[in-house]
């Protein structure tokens, strides 16, 4: 009888500690915050998408292609910056056609996405497309740093997606 009085609390305590340890491992691996392994593995897939290589005449890639996983919001991303000497309208027209030809669906347009003075930038995408990639929905954004008061003559393409969280343009 005495053995049972000791064994039950020990077993319950050990089971509780196992649950706490498993929860800690889950939380640290991206369960509560950050990127999961699936989304970290998704970033190179996004970086290899052919749309990031597409650009109009009179534009040049600028810097290296980038990719990674956003630890704050838990989504994978990849992108490329370009320098252009054509018109902004020409850049947008090019991607309206090139993205659709590559299987992307136009989700939204915003010809002048600059935030109002003193407000936060919520969405700076001039064009936003979406398409299925690797079992999830990817979002392609065409945006201009000059809309945020930076780098006139440059634009960026960025693809975001997530298996385990939420991604957007």
Automatic annotation (TrEMBL):
Q: What is this protein called?
A: Secreted protein
PROSITE patterns the record matches: PROKAR_LIPOPROTEIN (PS51257)
**Highest rank taxon of the organism:** Bacteria
């Amino acid at each position: 009888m005495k053995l049972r009085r000791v064994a039950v609390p020990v077993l319950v305590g050990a089971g509780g500690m196992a649950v706490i340890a498993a929860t800690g491992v889950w939380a640290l691996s991206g369960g509560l915050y950050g990127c999961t392994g699936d989304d970290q593995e998704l970033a190179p897939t996004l970086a290899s998408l052919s749309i990031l290589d597409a650009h109009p005449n009179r534009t040049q890639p600028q810097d290296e292609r980038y990719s990674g996983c956003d630890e704050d919001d838990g989504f994978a991303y990849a992108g490329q910056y370009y320098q252009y000497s054509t018109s902004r309208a020409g850049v947008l027209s090019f991607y309206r056609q090139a993205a659709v030809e590559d299987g992307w669906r136009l989700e939204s347009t915003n010809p002048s996405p600059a935030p109002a003075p003193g407000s936060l930038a919520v969405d700076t995408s001039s064009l936003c497309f979406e398409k299925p990639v690797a079992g999830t929905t990817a979002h392609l954004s065409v945006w201009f740093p000059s809309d945020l008061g930076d780098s006139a003559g440059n634009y960026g393409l960025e693809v975001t997606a997530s298996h385990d969280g939420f991604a957007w343009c």
